[in-house]
Amino acid sequence: MRIGIIGAGHMGSALAQHFTRVGYEVAVSNSRGPDTLRDLVAELGPRARALTAEETARFGDVVVVSIPFGRYHELPSDSLSRKIVIDTCNYFPERDGHDPDLDRDRITSSQKIRAHTGSNLVKAFNAVYWENLRAGSRPKGAPDRLAIPVSGSDEDAKAVVAGLIRDIGFDPVDAGNLGQGGRRHQPGTRVFGAKMTAEEMSGLFHAVRR
Ligand SMILES: NC(=O)c1ccc[n+]([C@@H]2O[C@H](COP(=O)([O-])OP(=O)(O)OC[C@H]3O[C@@H](n4cnc5c(N)ncnc54)[C@H](OP(=O)(O)O)[C@@H]3O)[C@@H](O)[C@H]2O)c1
Question: Which stretch is the leader sequence (predicted)?
Answer without folding.
Answer: none
